[in-house]
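Handout for the seminar on molecular recognition.
Each group receives one record of this type.
Step one: identify the two inputs.
Step two: read the structure output and locate the region that could contact protoporphyrin IX containing FE.
Step three: write two sentences on what you found, then compare them with the reference statements printed after the record.
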Amino acid sequence: MSSLLQFLRSTVFTKIVMAITGLLIIGFLIGHMLGNLLMFAGPEKINAYALGLKNLGPLLWLVRFAMIAAFGLHIWSSIELASRNKLARPVQYDTKKSLKSTFASRTMLVSGLAILFFVIYHLLHYTFGIIQPNTYYAGGYRMESTGEIVHHVYNMVVAGFQNPFIALSYIIALIFMSSHVSHATSSAFQTLGVMNPNIKKITSKIGPALAGLFLVGYLSIPIGVMIGVIKKAPDQKHVSTMTKDCPDTADCKCE
Ligand code: HEM
C-alpha cells in the first residue's frame, strides 16, 4: 500500500499523467480539426455536424467531462513538475540552452499558457457567444435536408474571422499550439517508455508531423475566410418561420 502511495506521489507518476492527458487532448484536437475542416464543404455540412454533436446528448457531456478532466490534470501535472524541478535545482544554470534543446522545448511553459488563455477565449467566443454576441446570435440556418432550423455555426465562424484582430489572435494562438504539440508528443512517447531506438526514431518525428498537420489544418480556416475562399452563406428567406416572432408570410425575412 505504501509503495502504491509512493508511486502516486512520484515524479514518474506525474509525468505519466501529463503524457496520457496530453495524448488525449491531441486526440480531441485531431477530431476537432477534421470537424472544423467541414467549413470548406459549406454551411449544410458543418451545421449538420454541429447539430449531430449536440444531439449526442449524454455522450457529448461524457466527452466534455473527460476533456475538462484531461485539461485540468495536464495543467496540474505541469505545475507539479515545474515546482519539483525548481526545488531540485534552486540555482538556475548560467546558460539554459542545452545542445539538444529546441525552440519548442524551451518555450513549453509560455506556449502552454498561451493555449490556456486561447481555450478560455475560444469558449467565450464560439461556445458561449460572449465575445461577438452579434455573430453568435445572427440567426438560424434552415437545413436543406430536413428543413430544421439550427444554429448557423458556419456564418458565426465566417463572421468571427472576418474581423482581422480576431483572425490574427487565432493565428498566433495556433502557432503556439503547434509548437507545444511538436515537442510534447515526442516527449510523451518517451515518458510512456518508448525506449527502443528504432521506434524512438519514428516517435520523435510524430510530434513535428502533427504540429505541421495542425498548422495547415487549423490555420486554413481563418486564412480561408480572410482571402475569401470561405464566404458568408447567402441569406435564407423565412429562416425563422417556425418561431412566433416571425410568421410565415411572403415578406418575412428574419436573420
Ligand atoms: C481555426 C481553429 C478553430 C475553429 C474554427 C474552431 C471552431 C470551434 C467552434 C465553431 C466551436 C463551437 C461548436 C458548437 O458550438 O457547435 C468550438 C468549440 C470548441 N473548441 Fe474550437 N475551433 C478551433 C480551434 C480550437 C483549438 C486549437 C482548440 C484547443 C486547443 C479548440 C477547442 C475547443 C473546445 C474545447 C470547444 C468546446 C467543445 C464543446 O462545446 O464540447 N478549438 N470550436
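Reference statements: DSSP finds ten helices and two strands in the chain. Residues 8-87+107-226 form one domain.
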